[in-house]
Automatic annotation (TrEMBL):
The lineage of its organism: Bacteria, Pseudomonadati, Pseudomonadota, Alphaproteobacteria, Sphingomonadales. GO terms for cellular component: membrane protein complex; plasma membrane. InterPro entries: AAA+_ATPase (IPR003593), ABC_transporter-like_ATP-bd (IPR003439), ABC_transporter-like_CS (IPR017871), ABC_transpr_LolD-like (IPR015854), MacB-like_ATP-bd (IPR017911), P-loop_NTPase (IPR027417). SMART domains: AAA (SM00382). Pfam families: ABC_tran. Residues 5-223 form the ABC transporter domain. One of its GO terms (molecular function) is transmembrane transporter activity. This is ABC transporter ATP-binding protein. Belongs to the ABC transporter superfamily. Macrolide exporter (TC 3.A.1.122) family. It comes from Sphingomonas cavernae. Keywords: ATP-binding, Cell inner membrane, Cell membrane, Membrane, Nucleotide-binding, Transport.
Amino acid sequence: MSDILATTGLKRSFIQGGETIEVLRGIDLHVGPGEIVALLGPSGSGKSTLLQAVGLLEGGFEGSIRINGQEAARLDNDGRTTLRRDALGFVYQFHHLLPDFNAEENVVLPQLIHGADNPAAHARAQALLTSLGLGHRLSHRPSQLSGGEQQRVAVARALANRPALVLADEPTGNLDEHTADIVLAEFLRLVREEGSAALVATHNERLAAKMDRVVRLHEGVLE
């Protein structure tokens, strides 16, 4: 089976103070079906920029990005939006949950946008959140949840539409070590159960070692 994600010669540069700053300098990266890959590197190494590129969140990149066999460069804005909606899930360092919606509603909403019917979306949200130990917290708003609980809801939301690839940017970076271990274990378990692939950016060697494979990004180059 072909790769879920494949980048070739991926580059990104910025103009800063009249100088060209090369953030990504020719990235060749492959993530296979169901594979969980740690993207390891220090702050400023380009991890977030790489995730923004493969997440189709902004333009200005050179090179090839193929997701589920589709070349993103050949798609117009609507096509990239559709591919992002249908194939990708996102988890960030900060949960970015909608504060006026409870845990269940935060996981239901992306499914409704995707076209699911209301009963199926609620059933899926309840199943995911219960699997993450939040079955008793479905009606709680983000402000009523702990940091670890908020991030579990964010994980459920990312997986709600059964994405082929989950992109996670320091998903436990805002948590204490003990809570980070618990949330990461739950994230990895659920991703594997759902059969998704994942690319997880982290600066933590210990957490990276728990994933299937580690690639290292240093000064815009994979080592």
